[in-house]
Design goal:
2 copies of one chain form a homodimer.
Chain A lengths: L12 H16 L2 E2 H8 L3 H13 L3 E6 L9 E5 L5 E7 L4 E7 L4 E7 L7 H18 L3 E8 L3 E2 L4 E2 L13 H5 L7 E5 H12 L24 E6 L3 E7 L2 E2 L31 H4 L1 H9 L15 H13 L3 H25 L3 E5 L7 H14 L2 H4 L3 E4 L6 H16 L1 H15 L14
Chain lengths: 441, 441
């Protein structure tokens, strides 16, 4: 049994209702007690009592009078998103990034561990542990760690089933290494699923409008989310929130779009399948193609670059009108589009957000993807599917790692408020965090 | 607002708990009060009170002493699955089947409406209404109608977005036509999703072992279901229950495996996509291939057969060792296998059940599918995925239509018990249903 087992779920109905209030405030910003009562189907006295407890425990603050109230005063309430912080750690094939964020996803501090090879992995695991413990020791307002790892990630076992181009990660048991390594609860999620959580929690365009009148927002924030985060980076992954819940599958291997074949007679993949989407449009595949004899004249120094740099080179060259680069980028974007068609037919989300390295291609990517979708997806389904690029203020997977922790906070906010008090008491000092711009990677 | 709106959800905590008891009994068979209390986390007095109400309302019956109780008497309880009946209606491209089933999925009466063309559809809708009303009038123990329709089915609008090879169905609004057409609640579901519900509710191998001792079944029936029903019939469809819940997507268009491409440069499909799985292994595609010039010598009379007959002919010829038939069947089964690989990578279920016309190929299908999966799916995921053929006592989609209604019964059993009493009072006679073997299609 984990020492952090109590952080899973609220232990009473009052705590469960406080969690519902915290999530609503996180989603909507500033709300009145009356609006919260209406949205959650609770009585005004019940809400007053719950809110009083949340103010006392430091979860909620009053923001002053709301505009628009007709006859009586209406005081705004907000979740104290800046008072609690989480660490997000993103494990990619060849690098590890970390960052400190507040509950609103605001980046406060960021860093990276150096590039690594397959052999460095045990040392990297050790370095992550040391780094996270250092950051935690310096800031008692950090109450959880979220980690995002490449999929397929076997969530109950704590292992990655396969990391194409980086087999070394298969030997790491993330649950054993990290679940008890820190003085705060630690949660691990497949990278694209973490990204989906980040889009859902932090992407501003998805938020319900703030309270603008005495009757509250026009749309009640109760429609269940159907969202796909389509990670096109070193690997290709997908995280799907369906009717408000992440799709995991039996062992955590669901929504592995990167290994869904787009051509059963196509390129072989390390997973055993042929024609895996990942083999055509991941940063690794792009880099590989740029190094192929076919393109030797076009990208002569590409062999010395890392995958991210190779992609950047391709995007720049294409933007300058270079013919081979434009043609290759178009091929890549077309395959990203095939992936979108599969996402629509397999998961029918209302929104597909494309993120990570290959999303750096920007507008040309979005244009091609939308064209492929309009040619190949059913009108009824594509017309109700918005496709956009991630607009988060940081790497979507890193912010996703933070979102995994924030999501857990919102499931049991009272437990985390206690933890925060306890940590502040122990360390005996106020949090000192350098702003993001001063941080050293 | 529907006149049957009250049948959606239980209206009190007591009713919700009765629904939980009903579902547990439906799943496990015969259980003691003590076991139910333990499984649901309720106190013994609470269970006694709830069970007393359920006995009084005719939902539950006592079955006598259970074996294995050590010191005190342990009386078995069972859901009265034979006392309540539902009608299932299966809409396929060119035929409509219907059947009466009890809550355990036992077939009591079955029939079919004649084969139809695109032009007959309005008449067919009318004929279904008349037929269902006749059956309902004769049997007051029928308390709901479930319907299964080909996907992609837009669940909120009540329309089918596309029926390949049978566009006429697109003009039908199922919600408008049927939701108020009968004196009992009517529910409509995409066919493969209905099939998934049937596998979950009625497939015996999935049931938790019956009570064998005073401590109840070894495994508590609380593990969330991750099940895929893979419909390979006139169309190719998929229904996925993930963590106990059907995956629907925003408009009901999720899990449309038939239109997930296995070859982006492959055969064009009416949906706009290319290389849709359905274009390679549906009964329609098989029939089309058998009619192609390539096979003109092998299946000379196949043009005069319907799709089901054509498939039967292929399976028979292959079983007799006929070379072109064996080769074609192997190609078809290979594509069914590609579909399984995509299911594993997209949904990671613990069980894939293959059903409908093409499942009639039997063992050769299963062998090829398992071989393809072992070649192409990740070991970690395929090793925890059982693949089998549907073993239900009736067509899985027809039984699925019934399962849609039974599932709703189990969500609010007290409401249906009242409805049943009310219907019995009105009609003033006991149900008279001919057994299945005497029914006339």
């Amino acid at each position: 049994m984990s020492k952090h087992a109590t952080f899973g779920a609220p232990s009473s109905i009052a705590e469960a209702n406080q969690a519902r209030i915290a999530r609503l405030l996180h989603q909507c910003g500033i709300l009145s007690r009356a609006y919260i009562a209406k949205a959650l189907g609770l009585t005004a006295p019940a809400i007053s009592k719950l809110v009083a407890r949340m103010i006392e425990s430091g979860l909620v603050t009053e923001t002053g009078d709301l505009p628009g109230a007709r006859h009586r005063r209406s005081i705004g309430l907000a979740l104290k998103t800046a008072a609690y912080r989480v660490i997000g750690v993103k494990f990619a094939r060849s690098r590890v990034d970390w960052g400190v964020f507040d509950l609103a996803g605001k980046p406060l501090q960021q860093g990276a561990l150096p590039l690594m090879s397959d052999r460095d992995i045990p040392g990297t695991v050790q370095a992550v542990t040391v780094q996270v413990n250092q950051v935690l020791a310096a800031d008692p307002s950090i109450i959880a760690v979220g980690m995002a790892v490449p999929g397929p990630y076997l969530r109950h076992e704590g292992r990655i089933a396969l990391v194409t181009s980086m087999q070394g990660w298969r030997g790491v048991n993330f649950l054993n290494e990290f679940s008890q390594a820190f003085p705060v609860p630690t949660f691990i999620e497949q990278d694209a699923r973490a990204g989906a959580l980040a889009q859902n929690l932090f992407a501003p365009d998805h938020r319900t409008p703030r309270l603008t009148g005495p009757n509250g927002p026009a749309a009640r924030p109760t429609a269940a989310t159907n969202l796909a985060y389509y990670l096109v980076g070193e690997g290709v992954g997908l995280g799907v929130i369906e009717s408000g819940r992440l799709i995991n599958g039996e062992r955590g291997g669901a929504t592995e779009l990167g290994h869904v074949s787009i051509d059963v007679n196509g390129r072989p993949c390390e997973c055993g399948n042929r024609g895996c989407l990942e083999r055509y449009c991941s940063a690794v595949a792009i880099h590989e193609t740029m190094c192929a004899p076919e393109y030797s004249g076009s990208f002569p120094q590409v062999g010395g670059l890392d995958h991210a740099q190779a992609c950047q080179l391709l995007f720049q060259r294409a933007a300058q009108g270079d013919e081979p680069a434009s043609e290759l980028l178009e091929r890549v974007c077309t395959c990203v589009g095939y992936g979108c068609v599969s996402i629509i037919n397999a998961f029918n989300p209302s929104r597909i957000v494309i993120g990570d390295l290959v999303a750096g291609a920007g507008r040309p990517l979005l244009d091609t993807v939308r064209r492929i979708v309009s040619e190949r997806a059913l009108p009824e389904l594509r017309q109700s599917t918005r496709i956009c690029l991630s607009s988060l203020p940081a790497d979507a997977t890193l912010l996703g790692a933070a979102a995994v922790a924030v999501d857990r906070f919102l499931q049991a906010p009272t437990a985390y408020a206690s933890l925060s008090k306890q940590r502040a008491g122990k360390s005996g000092h106020k949090p000192v965090i350098r702003p993001a711009k001063e941080s050293q990677p």
